[in-house]
Design goal:
Layout lengths: L25 H20 L7 E2 L5 E2 L2 H13 L11 H13 L5 H16 L10 H13 L8 H20 L8 H17 L5 H19 L44 E3 L7 E3 L14 H11 L4 H16 L18 H21 L3 H19 L4 H18 L4 H16 L7 H15 L4 H10 L7 H12 L9 H19 L34 H27 L1 H10 L9 H10 L5 H8 L4 H12 L8 H9 L8 H18 L7 H19 L9 H7 L11 H13 L10 H12 L3 H20 L3 H13 L9 H9 L2 H16 L7 H14 L18 H4 L22 H12 L9 H17 L1 H6 L6 H14 L4 H17 L4 H18 L5 H17 L7 H7 L1 H4 L3 H22 L6 H12 L8 H12 L10 H13 L5 H24 L5 H25 L5 H16 L8 H25 L8 H23 L5 H16 L2 E2 L2 E2 L1 H20 L11 H12 L3 H5 L22
Antiparallel strand pairs: 1-2, 3-4, 5-6
Helix pairs in contact: 1-2, 1-4, 2-3, 3-4, 3-5, 4-6, 5-6, 5-7, 6-7, 6-8, 7-8, 7-10, 8-11, 10-11, 10-12, 11-13, 12-14, 13-15, 14-15, 14-17, 15-18, 17-18, 19-20, 21-23, 23-25, 25-26, 26-28, 29-30, 30-31, 30-33, 31-33, 31-34, 32-37, 33-37, 34-39, 39-40, 39-41, 40-41, 40-42, 41-42, ...
């Protein structure tokens, strides 16, 4: 209320106000604390609970929480000048008490949390504060054990968000370096609990919680590069066990609950204890009282400032989340976090953040590196095959970061991921979707774009004998993927091309611009003397002169080893010989060299390696000992060592071989772990016991499983008479039970044992047990997609069918019909084929061998191999199309038709030699009956009719096996060909997978045939059958299918003649059923070519002409694409002398009727664009010219009726087509190539051919003269403006002149002599009336005309031009003259 213009001023007594920065001065901290105390008290006083309390003497007292705030208020201002000496716990404690009190409501707790957040962000507590570590620990302990009363969901979410803020502020504070490992783990643990609890709350809390979790991970792992590895060494016992179970319970929303009941159901991360997500959250306690050096070290690590120990625990926790997806329940209110896709995405996002910030530092800490190499890559391999493109994209980002930051430490892991995930998805090996393929291809292309990636791939993998050829595989993949096969160009094709270009560019860039290309010495890689390839080392990787020749040499060695491995897999002796010749093994083999070859060479058949190592000769025993010495079993448990050892080969099936192998292992293990056992016998006995336990626990045939007590009891006293520790045996027992030692992917001991027993057994019960064992092995192999196991099973079983033994038909049927083992084995073979065909590869050959044997024995059903659509075929076609019949019967007659007397006589002789077959005995009848019943139970037909359900790779192997099996005898080849055609027709939706192999096989049969045979017949009609059946469904393959029919045109003349009629009838059925699907010129050319060659065939011409008539009659199926082809074919039928005159006449009528289509197409072109119409008119003109040219050829036929009709039809086509639009050039071409040549040819025939051969040619000449005159007059408006008109007119006059001179039997023809002047006069009248011919013609036409006319008809000039004067005529007007020639 003072003076209006006077501004009040405050006198600053203290000097602390000079700092104007964002950070408040020290003296301001007291005011800030006082302000926050007031804020908390204000909220508390709004609730009557926090009012005054009365004692018995009615004295007023404050609640303890309020009282503590007031006590601080009394002192806070006295601290402002010595604030840095005040323990922050003093003024923080009241706030922390409120946060931990279960009496406070959510608003009060929220204000207290806001106060703590303010103290942290405004640096009231900083790095220089006294006892700052204790203060931070108290804050974290209080916030992570926060308790409050739930009043409403909104206020609860506010408190949770403020908890997240405070915890993140603790980590972002400069003083956070004083936080202990345990407290950092508690912070992450609490935040993750909120992330999980937020799944049932609002979207804002969910996003905030996840964001906070990401920020926490960034803050923590940003610190890793600054951590000193020496000071932060982490003991082996200090980290939690990998792969511990993670479980997330349901939420509890009760009021007045503790922290976990308000949304914190989740995990606690503890050093040295398993990761556990449980409903009841235990307090973090480390056992400090346990005596022991490791425990003291652990206690020390918990308390010291955070570093590698907590980061190991947190990263381990994040990896464990990826293994917890299947344990996460989906509740009624759970959101996306609990879904299988969101959990890994969240975990991978956190992991990626950690790797991006501190990836290079991971390699400096063994525990961190081990987590990446084992746990993380296990999850990346698993989720890399996820059907979700989003997960694959996230995995892609992590792998790219790992490659960029840690590739030196992750060589084997990256190799496994590239080859087993990225490349297989990119080529659709796992049935990947298009999106997955695209993401995988993008990853590969991004890798190719990395500088040096190509060179690193080649040097580290392709030139390493223990690695796969990743560079070569990647180049092949990109090359194949960049090439679109029978499909339009897609994004994947473009991506692959970019990757290929990136690879090429990467290689080209290293060459530089100079012309000097570094070339290694020519003999640098040639091994002139033996050198142990497993010991070859590079002297210096820093010197290119050292490592470049080294890489070149290793690549050479690897190529030779791969060839040697291939030889070894076929014949071990030849493999060793090749390697000796390549100087990779010494001239005289020694055990160590052979052992190292078997140990370090990839691609070897593990069955053969096991058999060789188990050999009984001394050299094999020595090799086995050396082989065992190549392993390092130090610090390995016995079960782990056994797994490592047995992964490198397959245990042989013979008991003595197994004993030798296990003895060698036990001796090596005892040598390296002498303190574990009393002697090597103890290691041997326990190894045997583990193998038996593995079989017991993981074999479905064993009903009563061995218990832990049984296992321990069985191993009593094996350690030199003493017992092994129970804990040690218990650990081994659980390891084997939980993780099987896989020893039987191929012809392992189980299959070998079953085979041996099956070979020796005669008892029915044991026999059935063996067969059931085979089927159960097949079931397991099918479940795990072990195709090599199934192939091995089929090899073993097929030996017991007796179908492959060389016996006569009668002996084979008797043996099979009365042999229960053979019947059960056969049934097992086809049960495996029907149930697990998807995973059979080379085993199809064994199956087909059995099928062929049954076919030879006549035991197969008559309808074997028929596809479903065969039932719809008419009976009339069954005689043409071959079907599989059960018995092999001798043919009653040759397969081809015999023409001529000798052929018929030979047939009669053949019939005469037939002898009645002997009657079978009762024993044979019974054997036949039993065998037939067994075969019926096998359902062999469904193996082929249901092939449409086989996976693509198995189907391809089946088709190849059918082709290979057909190389036996002709009967077998015919049978296999029928099956191949059936399989092809049953897989019409995947025809491109089979078509190339099927077509090449049929083409080989057709082109190599020189005489008719059943096989050729099956091949030809099978090909037509495939075309008939596929044309309606595969429009994009129409041209390829029809083009394949050109093989018929390549048949040997004798073969073609034998089957011509049947082929033509099949083509007729094909055309009638699919004429609408044939659109292209190529397709119609094949069809018309096949029809044309039948025109002169006695039996085939009838169906051939019927087919042509179906196409051409009324223009039903005439198209611009087939017009000329059909006209050519019709002309050949018209000229053919096979058949009667009527067929030739019909052929001419078809040619005449085809002109209607030209008129129709010409009219349709009127509405088109000018350019399009012009092109159509040109095409129509060309087709018209080809039509009249073909008619001209028939006009010189020797048969009078055909010849004259052809002339009349030609005249009709030249003058009677109304509406057709012909260009002027077409008429000029018509005169030059049709009309004039026709008249000349007819004249030559009259002069040179005998009259008996060409009768009544006079009539034909008269018709041709009329054709000449009418054609000239009809085309006059078109040709008169042409520069060639004079030539045409003179040609017309010359033809008339020549025809007047023709003589028949020495005399001139009076009819022609009378006809020519009349035709000439009519022509001159028209030319006069149109102004084409007049005395004033400047082109000499007048003079040329009369010089020719005066010899033909001297009086015509005076009749047409009586006064010899030009007359005025209207151009284009035609006077009424007699244009109708008598």
């Amino acid at each position: 209320m003072g003076c209006p213009n006077q501004q009040s001023k405050v006198v600053a007594v203290s000097g602390d106000t000079k700092d104007c920065s964002c950070r408040p001065p020290r003296s301001s901290s007291a005011f800030m604390v006082n302000s926050e105390i007031g804020a908390v008290l204000a909220v508390m006083r709004r609730n009557v609970r926090w009012g005054f309390h009365y004692t018995t003497d009615e004295d007023q007292i404050d609640h303890p929480l309020i009282k503590s705030f007031k006590e601080i208020r009394k002192q806070v201002f006295s601290w402002q000048h010595r604030w840095h000496t005040i323990n922050p716990v003093v003024y923080l404690q009241p706030f922390l008490d409120v946060i931990q009190s279960d009496e406070t409501s959510a608003p009060i707790t929220g204000v207290a949390l806001s106060s703590i957040y303010k103290f942290l962000t405004f640096e009231v507590i900083d790095l220089d504060t006294v006892d700052v570590a204790d203060a931070l620990h108290l804050i974290v302990d209080a916030v992570t054990s926060c308790r409050f009363e739930v009043t409403d969901p909104a206020s609860e979410e506010v408190v949770l968000m403020k908890i997240l803020q405070v915890l993140l502020a603790c980590m972002k504070s400069k003083a956070s370096v004083n936080l202990s490992n345990q407290h950092v783990c508690n912070i992450v643990n609490t935040c993750f609990q909120i992330v999980h609890q937020a799944s049932s709350k609002g979207e804002l809390l969910q996003r905030t919680a996840r964001h906070t979790m990401h920020e926490l991970i960034r803050c923590i792992f940003m610190h890793l590069p600054d951590v000193c590895n020496n000071n932060q060494a982490f003991t082996h016992g200090g980290r939690s066990h990998l792969g511990d179970e993670v479980s997330v319970p349901e939420n509890d929303h009760s009021s007045a609950s503790k922290l976990q009941d308000n949304g914190y159901t989740g995990s606690k991360i503890e050093l040295g204890s398993p990761l556990n997500l449980s409903t009841n959250i235990p307090e973090v306690k480390m056992d400090h009282e346990t005596i022991g050096e490791a425990d003291q070290s652990k206690s020390h690590l918990v308390a010291e400032p955070y570093g590698v120990p907590c980061m190991v625990e947190i990263f381990n926790f994040l990896c464990s989340l990826l293994n917890a997806v299947e344990h996460v329940g989906v509740g009624p209110r759970s959101n996306s976090l609990t879904y299988d896709e969101d959990v890994p995405l969240f975990a991978f996002g956190l992991i990626n953040s950690a790797i991006e910030l501190s990836g290079p530092s991971f390699g400096h800490h063994p525990e961190m590196l081990a987590l990446v190499q084992n746990d993380l890559f296990h999850s990346l391999m698993q989720f890399g095959l996820s059907p979700s493109p989003l997960i694959l994209s996230t995995v892609r980002s992590i792998v790219l970061n790992l490659y960029h930051l840690m590739r030196v430490k992750l060589k084997l892991q990256l190799e496994a991921f590239f080859s087993c995930v990225l490349m297989k998805i990119a080529v659709n090996k796992h049935g990947a979707s298009y999106q997955q393929q695209e993401v995988a291809m993008e990853t590969l292309v991004d890798l190719c774009r990395q500088p040096g990636f190509i060179h690193e791939m080649y040097a580290n993998y392709d030139c390493d004998i223990s690695c796969s050829n990743l560079f070569e595989d990647l180049a092949n993949l990109l090359s194949k993927s960049a090439f679109p096969v029978n499909s339009p160009l897609s994004a994947i094709h473009v991506l692959a091309l970019e990757g290929l270009i990136a690879m090429i560019s990467g290689m080209a860039e290293t060459m530089g611009d100079n012309d000097q290309i570094p070339v290694l010495e020519p003999d640098a890689s040639n091994l002139e003397q033996h050198e142990s390839f497993w010991n070859v080392k590079c002297e210096s990787y820093d010197n290119p002169d050292c490592w470049a020749p080294y890489i070149h040499k290793m690549k050479h060695i690897k190529k030779k080893l791969m060839i040697g491995a291939d030889h070894f897999n076929r014949d071990p002796k030849k493999g060793f010989q090749f390697l000796q010749g390549s100087c990779l093994l010494p001239e005289t083999l020694d055990p160590m060299s052979v052992a190292c070859f078997l140990r370090y060479t990839s691609g070897l058949d593990k069955n053969l390696v096991g058999e060789y190592l188990g050999g009984h000769d001394q050299f094999s025993v020595d090799v086995l000992q050396e082989y065992a010495k190549t392993f390092d079993f130090q610090e390995m448990n016995l079960d782990t060592a056994l797994r490592v050892f047995l992964e490198t080969f397959r245990l042989p099936g013979e008991a003595q071989k197994i004993q030798r192998v296990v003895e060698a292992f036990a001796e090596r293990y005892f040598e390296q772990s002498p303190n574990m056992f009393a002697d090597k016998d103890a290691a041997l006995l326990l190894s045997y016991s583990l193998i038996l336990l593995n079989t017991d626990q993981h074999n479905a045939q064993v009903k009563k499983k061995m218990t832990e007590d049984d296992f321990i009891r069985n191993n009593r006293g094996i350690n030199g008479g003493n017992d092994l520790p129970r804990e040690y045996l218990s650990e081994l027992y659980h390891s084997i039970c939980e993780n099987e030692i896989r020893m039987t992917p191929e012809q392992g001991p189980t299959v070998a044992a079953l085979s041996v027993v099956l070979d020796l057994v005669d008892q029915e019960a044991v026999l059935q047990t063996c067969i059931d064992g085979f089927l159960n092995v097949a079931k397991i192999a099918g479940c795990y997609h072990l195709d090599d196991v199934l192939d091995g099973l089929l090899v073993s079983l097929s030996k017991f069918t007796t179908l492959l033994l060389p016996m006569s038909i009668e002996e084979s049927i008797l043996a099979f019909g009365y042999d229960s083992k053979a019947q059960k084995s056969t049934l097992a073979v086809f049960t495996i084929a029907n149930m697990y065909g998807d995973y059979i590869r080379s085993g199809w050959r064994n199956i087909l061998d059995c099928v062929l044997s049954l076919h030879k024995l006549g035991l197969l059903p008559a309808r074997l191999g028929r596809d479903v659509a065969d039932d719809l075929e008419s009976n009339s076609e069954d005689s043409v199309r071959s079907s599989l019949v059960s018995p092999i019967k001798p043919a009653l007659a040759p397969a081809w038709k015999s023409f001529g007397l000798m052929g018929r006589f030979s047939e009669f002789l053949y019939y005469d030699t037939e002898k009645p077959a002997p009657q079978p005995s009762e024993e044979q009848v019974e054997a036949q009956k039993r065998a037939t019943e067994t075969v019926k139970e096998c359902h062999i037909d469904s193996v082929f009719t249901e092939s449409k359900f086989l996976q693509s790779e198995s189907l391809l192997h089946l088709s190849r096996a059918l082709i290979l099996a057909s190389h036996e005898d002709e009967n077998g080849a015919v049978f296999c060909l029928e099956l191949l055609i059936t399989v092809t027709l049953n897989n019409r939706d995947r025809i491109m997978l089979l078509w190339q192999n099927v077509y090449e096989y049929i083409a080989n049969i057709v082109q190599s045939a020189v005489m008719p045979s059943t096989l050729v017949e099956k091949a030809v009609f099978g090909l037509i059958r495939i075309c008939r059946r596929l044309l309606p469904y595969k429009e994009e393959l129409t041209d390829d299918l029809l083009k394949s029919l050109q093989l018929i045109l390549k048949l040997d003349a004798r073969v073609a003649d034998a089957y011509c009629e049947h082929i033509t009838r099949e083509i007729m059925h094909l055309v009638k059923a699919n004429a609408g699907q044939i659109k292209s010129h190529l397709g119609w050319r094949t069809i018309t070519s096949l029809l044309s060659i039948t025109a002169c065939h006695p039996e085939a011409s009838e169906p051939g002409f019927e087919t042509l008539e179906f196409i051409m009659l009324d223009g039903a199926h005439l198209l611009p694409a087939n017009f000329v082809l059909c006209v050519n074919a019709a002309r050949q039928f018209a000229e053919s002398r096979v058949g009667d005159i009527a067929r030739s006449t019909k052929s001419l009528d078809l040619m005449a009727g085809s002109s209607v289509c030209l008129v129709k197409w010409s009219r349709e072109a009127v509405g088109e664009e000018p350019e399009t119409a012009a092109q159509l008119y040109q095409d129509i003109g060309e087709m018209w010219v080809r039509l009249v040219q073909n008619l001209r050829k028939v006009c010189i036929d020797s048969r009078e009726e055909i010849r004259n009709r052809a002339v009349l039809i030609l005249q009709q086509c030249l003058t009677g087509l109304e509406g057709i639009h012909l260009q002027d050039e077409a008429w000029v071409q018509c005169f030059d190539s049709v009309i004039f040549p026709l008249l000349n040819d007819l004249l030559e025939i009259v002069k040179e051919k005998p009259a008996k051969e060409y009768q009544n040619m006079e009539g034909t000449l008269i018709l041709s003269l009329k054709l000449l005159s009418k054609s000239f007059l009809h085309s006059l408006p078109r040709v008169s403006p042409s520069a060639s008109f004079s030539k045409i007119w003179v040609g017309v006059l010359s033809c008339m002149e020549h025809y007047t001179k023709v003589k028949f039997r020495g005399k001139r023809s009076e009819k022609i002599h009378e006809l020519v002047p009349e035709l000439l006069k009519n022509t001159l009248f028209v030319m006069k009336s149109t102004g084409v011919l007049s005395p004033n013609c400047s082109n000499g036409l007048w003079e040329q005309t009369w010089s020719h006319v005066k010899d033909l008809a001297p009086s015509v000039q005076s009749e047409v031009f009586p006064d010899d004067e030009p007359q005025t005529v209207v151009a284009g007007a035609v006077p009424e003259v007699n244009l109708v020639v008598p």
